[in-house]
Write a structure and sequence with these properties.
single chain, 262 residues, alpha/beta, 6-stranded parallel beta sheet, two-stranded antiparallel ribbon, 13 helices, 8 strands
């Protein structure tokens, strides 16, 4: 069971990645995502992590640059219920979703003090509260940079310079999709050996500014409903879910039909 940070507990030892596909986008299945990332860290191999959900899939259908960015990622984890249900019912494949907040939290919880971490994004008070909460929860976490997402001009330049100087091993970017993906693409060269992971609204949860859906709602794929309850203005964004169901089904059927032709 995941705690308030999203930490799920034990991390599996197997670290193989199985590449799958949804609407032309890669998805990796594994029993050991965190182990795989820790192995990359040990080998000083830079990685970009995308946590894919239905909304991002639909955005990628309209934005070729985002689509290419997802395709070039080193790890694409199945974040949303829509992804899990697509593979279960249309591909007859067993895949368990791994929400980005849980993947990031499990990764952070696995680290020792020798691994340097940077937090970037969110509102100033929110990210400071998130960093404080993590320092209380994991005193060994070596959080070397904490920077809110509203920096501009000299403040932003100073942050980028510090990234290049400190060379953190893990950089968590919470700017929302797709802004965080494009920001990573633009700045990944500053720390080429780091693991870069987009964490969306995780800082809001870690700081206590917002709550995740109760576990029972997450288990039956109703976390989206809890988000709508918390933020009713999100209803337009949530239209991506039924659009994804239709678009992914049509994509799968036309793909299969094309393969069946002589």
């Amino acid at each position: 069971m995941a705690d308030k940070f999203g930490v799920g507990g034990a991390v599996a030892e197997r670290s193989e990645l199985k590449r799958m596909s949804v609407m032309g986008l890669p998805v990796h299945q594994s029993q050991g995502y965190v182990s795989w990332l820790n192995q990359r860290l040990a080998e000083h191999r830079g990685s970009h992590v995308v946590t894919l959900n239905a909304e991002m899939c639909m955005q990628a259908q309209q934005d070729e640059s985002l689509s290419q960015f997802i395709k070039s990622a080193d790890l694409v984890a199945p974040d949303g219920s829509g992804i899990e249900l697509y593979f279960r019912f249309l591909e007859r494949e067993s895949i368990q979703r791994y929400p980005g907040i849980e993947l990031a939290a499990d990764l952070l919880a696995s680290l020792g003090p020798e691994t340097k971490v940077a937090f970037y994004g969110g509102k100033p008070k929110v990210i400071e509260a998130a960093a404080k909460a993590w320092r209380v929860r994991s005193p060994e976490l070596n959080l070397v940079i904490v920077q809110h997402g509203y920096a501009k001009g000299e403040e932003l330049e100073a942050f980028l310079t510090r990234l290049q100087t400190e060379q953190p091993d893990i950089i968590c970017v919470g700017l929302g999709v797709p802004r965080q993906e494009f920001w990573i693409a633009q700045n990944r060269h500053l720390c080429p050996n780091a693991v870069w992971i987009g964490v969306g609204g995780s800082y809001d949860i870690w700081s206590g500014a917002k709550d995740r859906a109760p576990l029972w709602m997450r288990k039956i794929h109703l976390e989206w409903l809890y988000r709508l309850y918390q933020e009713p203005w999100r209803w337009r964004r949530l239209l991506a879910l039924p659009h994804f169901v239709w678009a992914s089904t049509w994509y799968r059927l036309t793909k299969t039909s094309g393969q069946d032709r002589p």
